[in-house]
Structures are given as C-alpha cells and as structure tokens.
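Structural prep section.
Before we set up the soaks we want a predicted structure of the protein with iron/sulfur cluster in place, mainly to decide which crystallisation condition to try first. Input record follows.
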Amino acid sequence: MPLSIAHSGLRPVIAIIGNRNAGKSSLLNSITQQSLSIVSDIPGTTTDAVAKAYEMIPAGPVTIYDTAGLDDTGELGALRIQTSKKIINRADIILYVVGKDDSLIETENKLKQLKTTHPKLITVFNYADYFSTTDPRDSLIKKYKGIRISALTGQGIEELRKCIITHLLSSKKEPQLLSGLINSRDTLILITPMDIAAPKGRLIMPQTQTIREALDLNAIVLIIKTEELEPTLSILNISPKLIVTDSQAIKEVAAIVPSDIPLTTFSMLFAHAKGNFSQLLAGVRHINKLKDGSKILIAEGCAHHITCNDIGRVKIPNLLKKYTKKQLDIDFISGQDFPEDITSYDLIIHCGGCILNQQEMQRRLKQAYQQNINITNYGMVISFIQGVLERTATPFNNLSINQEK
Ligand code: SF4
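Run finished without errors. Recording the tokens verbatim:
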C-alpha cells in the first residue's frame, strides 16, 4: 500500500526508547537515512517524541518514534516520560537502545520488565565503534540476543533493519472488519448518513476502512444515505448479505430492513475486530445499573473538531441521560490520553478506535478488566438504548469472538 494512503492508525508503530544520550535520535536518522532528529551529545536533546513515517520495504509503511529519555529528570522530564510510556504502550515493536554509559544492572532490570509486556522487543547496543575491542556489555548482548550497532558509522544497521522486517512480517495482521461476514460477490450495503456532524467533502475513517476492505474482498458494495435505503432494497432482486449502518441511524434503519437480512453498525464491526467483543457486550448492560452521580468516561481514539451534534460529546450523553433519567457525571478524553487509573469510573464508553492499533485497543480493554471497570463502545450503547442490540450483535454470533484478556 503506498504510504500516502496508509493512515497513521493502520501503520505498525516502532518506538525507539532508552536513556538520554543512548543515541536514539542518531539511530532514527540511521534507519531512515535522513536527518530528522536533532543529534547532540547534550543529554535530553529530544524533549518531545519525533514521529517519522517510513516505508520499511518489503514489510510496508511504519511510523517510527524517537522518544525522550526514560531517565529524564524534573517536572517536565516526568511529563516527557509519561508521553514516552504512551508511545511504548501502543508500539508494535520496541527498539531499546543501550548507550555507552548506561548501568548494566539498570538496563537488565528494564529489559526484564519490558519483556513481560512487549514480546517484540529488540535490544540495540549502540556505540559498537566505541567498544571496538572489548565490550563490557557482551554478556547482556548474548542474553538478550542484542544487536551491536554504531549509529555513527552505520555498523549493524542493516542487520537491525532485517530484524525489524522479520518481526513486521511475522506480526499478527490487524484483524479484519468483514472477514467471515461477507465473501466475494456478496452484496454489502453501507449506510452513511450525511448529517451536520459528517465531515465536509469526505467520509469518516471507519467508513473508508470498511469500503476498502469490502473492495479487497471483491464484494459488491453499495454506499447510500439512509433516505435511499428503501428504494435500494426495492430494486435489488437479491437480498444483501449484510447491511452496515452508522450507529446514529440504527433505529431508523432497523425499522426498514426486513428481519431476515443481517444488520449491524460500523462501531460493532470495530468492536469485534479490534476489541474484546464479549467484554464490550457485557459492559453495555451496566447502563441499567447507573445511578445519580455515576461517573462515566467517554473515550475517543482521535482528537477532532467538536460539532453541536458530536456523537461522543453530545449525542451519547443525551441518550444516556434520557434513558437512565439519572444525573450522570461525564468526563471526555481523546487521542492518547487514556488515564492510567480509571477506578473512579462506573462505566467507560469507547469509540470504535479506528485509528488505534489493536495493541493499544487491547491494552485499554485489559486495563479496564484488571481495574474491574465496565467498558463498552459507542455502537453498542446506541443499539442497546434503541432496543436493537440483539439484532446488531447477531451477525457475529457464529464468528470466533475475540476473548483475549
Ligand atoms: S472517534 Fe474513534 S472511531 Fe471515530 S474516527 Fe476517531 S478513532 Fe475513529
């Protein structure tokens, strides 16, 4: 896929991490063969993470992050470490760079800890040129199958690039939205209302991702607005294999679509593909237990301009308040700001997370599970409140449901 159409949320994330002055920025420059990151001997030159989109041929486009040092200090340093941790959380591959002055004991402790959470950890021992005769890090290099490199001379960079490519090619592919639901030549109807919240002149990411996948599956795809649904169904001489609608139109669409035609929402496709469907399905039922003062966190994977009809900020809170008749205390977050402590919440309602990779979505769900907090998603909430949840969940009944915790 050409880089230009590989949205950042679909590209594998490679995070270069390590202490200040380990040579992380030089490594990014060496891998990409460009001078993107400022290289300096002064520790902490990279204060904010630098992201670079890069074509890692033949594995495809990736985003590589050069992060601030894990040993950063001071109040601002602590904030930068927090940012680095968020990148680590969603990284598909971590390159842990060991510098020439790093303590071997501390390095080993960090590696042990990272190994438990990040199976795709590549340890990179920089300054191979500096330790050209004896390298005091040899036993650690052997133990962690590290790669000796010199970001300065380019030694070992080709080996490292090959190792990254092997990891990328062996990685579990991002789950598919439509697999098992439609096949080649099946008719798929996608309903995309063009209301005030729709972006001018384009479709939203969940819709474009679904269209692209349907085309890859050689399906016959009809993309229509809600008003065209009845005339479309009346001219088709075969039943569509599946109808997928924007959640916000589900009530209207469910009233039109005959009960024998499978119907779901874009949000449910993402819940099934990226999340833990049963956890999200169980979470939605917690709506009936909300009381006055219950705390709800509405979480979106991306930051965007808020409109007066915004689904997360306006529509879902209004639906919830109307349905529960309770005074609810609702917080909102977007982008990478998912809090580490979510224990004060009674329910988390997450968007489909189309631009989050599966690693990050699964991490958020796992965190909710470990902190014993109910979590669900936008589409499930809307379907539940509109009384059509059983119908929109039915197409997934016979598919293997993602149960990972
Ligand atoms: S709010 Fe969520 S589902 Fe919507 S575009 Fe952003 S990440 Fe994707």
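Observations: Residues 204-206, 300-302, 351-355 surround iron/sulfur cluster (CB under 6 Å).
Flagged for discussion at group meeting.
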